[in-house]
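Problem 3 from the worked examples.
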Amino acid sequence: MKPHDDHAEKVGRAAVRPAPAEGGLKTALPEASDEAPDVPGFRTWGGVYWFAFACFLGVVGALTLFTRAFA
């Protein structure tokens, strides 16, 4: 039987808990990796993702401008 969760009942959803790991004190979920990326100029993975997204938007913008200029 699962333990009762008052907050989950108030918001209308079921409580989700990870299954207990063997040994009792270990967590069932893997620990998050907080390693810095091996990319020069970036301290976090978030910075790498924002840069990649900005480059994508730049390429889409350039393609849009070139399409209008040479159509």
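Problem 4, a separate protein:
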Amino acid sequence: MPPEEKPKPPPPPTLSRLAEDALVESIDGPVEIVKLAGKVMPVLTRFRDGALGFRMMTAVRQLDDGDLFELLNADEQRVRLGGDHVLVCEDGSEVRVRDLQVGDRLHAGWTYLPGYTPPNAAEYAPGVRGRPWDRAVVVTAVRSVGRGAQYGFSVNETKRYFLSFGAMSRAQV
């Protein structure tokens, strides 16, 4: 059988369960996952040495519909994710969205130096203005929002990526 006629292997299993409107941090800035279905795109990740960089997000595809949850963080950002979506906690452990609790601390995609205080300026969310920077993404609300479409994918090398919500997610096993 000629190579061009060989069937493609199935994509690797994914731990990502993003709602259509969930934003990922891509090389082009925040992008809704639904707009990336069937495409390949570099996304923000953290390497083993702690440095930030980009790796290819591949096999972006719609999965079966599932339970969706809306998360709110201390910076007043929202994201909708499937209940089985895997997030990385501040201490490096992992948690499924359905098991999150208010007050849980998630691994942040970016941070300031310890002791930094954002200015009391309109550009910053009211919850972070004029107070010392918290190096974690702190969950302030978790609520079920019904069922809906979910998207998954893989990330080369690190298998992790950042949501525009600020938190690190694990893409695959």
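Solution to problem 4. The chain has a mean pLDDT of 90. The CA atoms of residues 123 and 129 lie 9 Å apart.
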